[in-house]
Amino acid sequence: MSDDTDKATLRAIARQRRRAFVASLDPLAHRLAFKVIPSPLARRLADAQVVALYMGLDDEAPAQRLAAPLQAMGKTLALPRVLDRLGSMDFLSWRPEDRLFPGLFGTSHPEPTGDPVTPDVIVAPLIGFDRAMNRLGQGGGYYDRVFARYPDALRLGLAWSVQEHDDLPADPWDLPLNLILTEVELIEGYEA
């Protein structure tokens, strides 16, 4: 079985696990998840100016819930804008009250009125992760390309705890995450 097939199988299993976990969550627990930035993470974000979030789709961990505490810390927020089907995206400044526009693959992004911003922190969705800080994404390579384009940005994965795997395959172009935040813990890995 090839790595691509392994990853495809892992994605299917991980999506089902995530879906079942989120469906089983108490509605109040779901609404409260990811509304607070733990102090170890706040310290790691202290010097960051621009934090790129994403709008969680379906049962993804909802990164948009981090917006209020990040704004209270004085951070500029951004959202990704998917540019094409070849894996290209950039980041646009965003405030939670801004109107969002539909993008590719069911994504939403702010109105592209200004130049794209350069993130100091990139909060990335994922399907699975392991303690070696490997990230299993959707398979389109968008975040792999963005991580390579902004090598100095802190790479923060956001996930539900059930998305953890013992060991994930990693390709040579897969950059490890620096941190992973779940609803129950902050996992610290490589320095940015």
UniProtKB/TrEMBL annotation:
<feature type="binding site">
    <location>
        <position position="55"/>
    </location>
    <ligand>
        <name>substrate</name>
    </ligand>
</feature>
<keyword id="KW-0479">Metal-binding</keyword>
<feature type="binding site">
    <location>
        <begin position="7"/>
        <end position="11"/>
    </location>
    <ligand>
        <name>ATP</name>
    </ligand>
</feature>
<feature type="binding site">
    <location>
        <begin position="135"/>
        <end position="143"/>
    </location>
    <ligand>
        <name>ATP</name>
    </ligand>
</feature>
<protein>
    <recommendedName>
        <fullName>5-formyltetrahydrofolate cyclo-ligase</fullName>
        <ecNumber>6.3.3.2</ecNumber>
    </recommendedName>
</protein>
<dbReference type="InterPro" id="IPR037171">
    <property type="entry name" value="NagB/RpiA_transferase-like"/>
</dbReference>
<dbReference type="InterPro" id="IPR002698">
    <property type="entry name" value="FTHF_cligase"/>
</dbReference>
<dbReference type="GO" id="GO:0046872">
    <property type="term" value="F:metal ion binding"/>
</dbReference>
<comment type="similarity">
    <text>Belongs to the 5-formyltetrahydrofolate cyclo-ligase family.</text>
</comment>
<keyword id="KW-0067">ATP-binding</keyword>
<dbReference type="GO" id="GO:0030272">
    <property type="term" value="F:5-formyltetrahydrofolate cyclo-ligase activity"/>
</dbReference>
<keyword id="KW-0436">Ligase</keyword>
<dbReference type="InterPro" id="IPR024185">
    <property type="entry name" value="FTHF_cligase-like_sf"/>
</dbReference>
<keyword id="KW-0547">Nucleotide-binding</keyword>
<dbReference type="GO" id="GO:0035999">
    <property type="term" value="P:tetrahydrofolate interconversion"/>
</dbReference>
<dbReference type="GO" id="GO:0009396">
    <property type="term" value="P:folic acid-containing compound biosynthetic process"/>
</dbReference>
<dbReference type="Pfam" id="PF01812">
    <property type="entry name" value="5-FTHF_cyc-lig"/>
</dbReference>
<dbReference type="GO" id="GO:0005524">
    <property type="term" value="F:ATP binding"/>
</dbReference>
<keyword id="KW-0460">Magnesium</keyword>
<feature type="binding site">
    <location>
        <position position="60"/>
    </location>
    <ligand>
        <name>substrate</name>
    </ligand>
</feature>
